[in-house]
Amino acid sequence: MGAVEIVTVDSPKAAVLRRRAKPVGKVTADVGRLIEEMIEAMRLANGVGLAAPQVGVSKRLFVAEVEARVHVVVDPQIVKMEGEALATEGCLSIPGWVADVPRSQRVVLKGKNRRGRGITLDAEGLLARVIQHEVDHLNGVLFLDRVVDRSTIREAAATTEVEPAEPAEPAPAGG
Ligand SMILES: [Zn+2]
Fold this sequence. Notes:
With 175 residues, the chain is an alpha+beta fold. The protein is built from 3 helices and 8 strands, in the order H-E-E-E-E-E-E-E-H-H-E.
């Protein structure tokens, strides 16, 4: 299989990470293949989420895998945000760095699944965080832009995409 390369901020293709991605519209067979490649790339990188711009495709879709459930959302729109939560995040596109990022505790998201059917996701906690992180990617926003307390930016041994760790003593794992 052709492993998909993840675009990082120091890669020659990094500009795609700062672009506002274009709507997908119809979920074609090509989009279906892209989704499969993204799920594979996310798993290879031990990530919990991956947005299309991170594989060099400026389209509005992301995949996530939280608590053994895969979510595919095409043309996502956050329709509700509630509460506040602070936790440590990392990003597969910013290897080696983590920081504490304030996010909404709960989000409601509308979009399409991989079959092009309308879906609504009501998410809390880690999945809500992953969704906000990935939707940011579709708008050219990176997690470091969201950090309020810059002193929490620190080097991490492992690179993760949104870290499922306790904010107190983060142990970069699997995210
Ligand atoms: Zn990311």
